[in-house]
Amino acid sequence: MAQGKKLVIVESPTKMRSIQGYLGDGYEVLSSVGHIRDLADKKDIPAADKQAYGKYSIDVDNDFDPYYVVSDRKTKTVAELKRALKTADELLLATDEDREGEAIAWHLLETLKPKVPVKRMVFHEITKDAIQAAVGNTRELDTDLVDAQETRRILDRLYGWDVSPVLWYKVKTGLSAGRVQSAATRMIVERERERMAFVSADYWDVEALASSASGFRVRLVRVDGGQLARGTDFDDTGKLKKAVVVLDEKKAAALALAVDAAGIGTVSKVEAKPGTRSPYAPFTTSTMQQEAGRKLSMSAKQAMSVAQRLYEKGYITYMRTDSTALSTQAVQAARSQAVALYGDSAVPLKPRVYKSKSKNAQEAHEAIRPSGETFRTPSSVSSDLDREEFRLYDLIWKRTVASQMADAKYETTTVTIAVDAAGQNAEFTASGTVYTFKGFLEAYEEGRDEKRNSQDTSDEQSLPAVAVGDELRMTEAEAKGHRTTPKPRYTEASLVKALEEHGIGRPSTFASIIGTVIDRGYATKRGQALVPTWLAFSVVRLLEEHFADLIDYDFTAALEDDLDAIARGEQKRVEWLRSFYYGSESQVGLRHVVDNLGEIDARALNSTRITDTATLRFGKYGPYLEVVDPAAPDEKPRIVNVPEDLAPDELTAEKAQELIDAPVAGDRVLGVNPENGKVIVVKDGRFGPYVQENDPVSDDAAVDEATGEVVDKPKPKRGAKKDAAPKPRTGSLFRSMSVDTIDLDTALQLLSLPRVVGTDPESGDEITAQNGRYGPYLKKGTDSRSLDSESQIFDVTLEQALEIYKQPKYGAGARRASSALAEFEADPVSGKPIRIRDGRFGAYVTDGETNVTIPRGQKPEDITFEIAVQMLADKRAKGPAPKRGAAAKKAPAKKAPAKKPAAKKAPAKKAAATTQTDPDKAAARSAAAKKAAATRAANAAAKRAE
């Protein structure tokens, strides 16, 4: 870098490229790729500091001093930044203008220790004007924001590292607890508990067709002056909350017949009410996540990822904000665009002003909106954005423009019709809404979450002009039955809304929180709904019983308010942490709670009573029913598997009995293997159904004639250990097979796998067909090829197998395995060209050092250079995934067997075995090396020919 340049550091490679183009040659823009350091792992703390920092990487006795280290994957980045800083005459820290961005800037300052002037450069959109204005309007680092971020980080470490181990010991290893994550999980579980306790109520009404010149649907609302029951008239126990008329099926059917018999109704009332609807405020982070979920079916995480790309490309303003305010220029841009598209009447005389609820003035950005002083229409940018980016930009653009448009005006007309139904006065109503001026609805209408008892809401319809006294024909009367419904499960959108309403967490963290809840197995998605698992029930029960204060909604919300106060400089970090950890007059400290937990009954914690004889328990492999025989309560309870896709509220007493009474499919005898006389049985195991070859049934065992279940003799009492018996042969059922229908011949075929297809005449290698984790495949030496279906395992011939091996291993047609689907410029971090390749498990992005699989639903052609750079950066930030059996694979490469990490009991035998097979291995490696060299030569020749 030339002498005299100014060094600008941002946290994203994509931002780096965009900003470099706006600042010109006098600036060098580099990226930190997120945080460069964090709290140390225990193994990274020197021995001298272990006593003070060893437990949390925080010295809780010395003002909660954190021990930070530069992560291994960031040493190269830090070295590059230090080299660039040596020749710079000024440092501009241009990370995001929020707590996290301020903390990144502070860590950069602490690590780089610059000797040149340092300035804080902030902006909320990446446009040329905004970036150049930010350079001329810098500020100092905001240490209050840094303190708030550091307090949150320390708080989460103390909370997680003290509470999570309790979950490991009492529920399941690998679980985690967190102040916002646990509260969110509790919300999901509580909603399911409400659904489980809910008692539905049935009620009936009558619908009919009323017509004069045209027809419209009407619904019965009153009988002899009494209000007809609706879903909202019942409580959650199925009881009425007020006095109303409840029709059963018989009465409703009789009324319908009487209405049809009458044939005529008289209009008794026509009521017209005018109304207005105002537009919605521009997007905050929370409302954007909610609408992206409702309208675009995006998860909160996906919405934030797409918004991040739009921001870094310069299409929208900063996407982490609690503010609904728009700048003067943005208001004018929205109004101008509304007038240009919808006419002068589309906007009110005065611009609309939206007030933010955020107390944090120093964190207040604008609302999320299209960037620039003139908004680009969605159609003008469609060719520059991928599909998801375009859909979200279109949503943000519409919401922003609509926020400055005029109110919508409408008129709702309600018609009441009286019918003499066999001496009963039956009153029907119908409503219709007509918009006299659509206003902002021309541009945008907000989506809606699922609501309870929606069956009581009539569809909007156009009503003909009628007057009081008019007689209308009444036909097609029909009795309609309804049932009350429980509260709907949370979706990601409605959970985000609930968290915000409770003041729990911050919108910028909602996406990662919901992602953690799902990743930890606390909830699964059924469509858009979040369904809690039984694991979540156990975790929440433990937290409620032993950490009640920490999981309390008001307490969690108060923590957020306190962090906000620290960010505003109104509270001190150390004083607040001391109160949280050690306690104070107003609260019990975390340490006191953990030190006084007392006994926790893990068995009771993981149990939910379903019936008098059936208890749902959560074990190592998931949920199951433990069923006690009332006639023999002291005998060992029977275990009944619970289907994984059965939601907790669906496990009613009736469903539990259905599972208990279901015929036993496991251990069903299929027959005898004619080759060895062993018994073939089919089992339904924890990891799926399979067949097994057992020794012949002894005289002390029997087979239940009704179910085919093998009933073993009682196990002998514990005594001296016996030699381990050889494991029986097993074979997993194909996905197309069922434990109820599989026969002996098919079972024998499964047990015979892998099947030898034949021998390759050229190499002499044996070709086998088998089923694996990723589906059916052929194997020849170390070379494997996928098959199209499981049936091919038994049907594929040698000729067909040889033809499959002639085809390229990856991709389609004649494309070479080494060819790339797309190629881009060099990655800014590794300096190597980025390519999209087609692998065994799908397309992936690579720079030769880091590989990232392209997510499902996203096509390789949708990946741009910027997206690829971000994907690689995100993958590097996560660090390398631990390899299965890495220690075992690495050990043989060492020269001295005695130094293997995983020591065997008889290393001498292992060494001898290795020596005996070395010539074979060497020959195999030699053949593989020759084959690889031939392939490279062929590829090079083909490339030259092109």
Describe the 3D structure.
It is a single chain. The chain is of the alpha+beta class and 946 residues long. Helices cover 35% and strands 21% of the residues. The chain is built from 28 helices and 35 strands. The strands form ten sheets. A six-stranded antiparallel β-barrel has the order 9-10-14-13-12-15. The chain has a four-stranded parallel β-sheet with strand order 2-1-7-8. Strands 18-19-20-21 form a four-stranded antiparallel β-sheet. α4 (99-112) crosses α6 (143-170), α6 packs antiparallel against α18 and α9 packs across α10 (300-312). The two termini are 39 Å apart.
Broad structural category: alpha+beta
What general outline do the C-alpha atoms trace? Answer: globular
Individual helix count: 28
Indicate the low-confidence ranges by residue numbers: 360-364, 810-819, 883-919
How are the strands of the biggest sheet laid out side by side? 9-10-14-13-12-15
- The pLDDT mean sits at 83
Alpha-carbon Rg, integer: 34 Å
Beta-sheet strand percentage? Answer: 15-25%
What is the rounded distance between the termini?
39 Å
* Largest beta-sheet details: 6 strands, antiparallel, barrel
Number of strands: 35
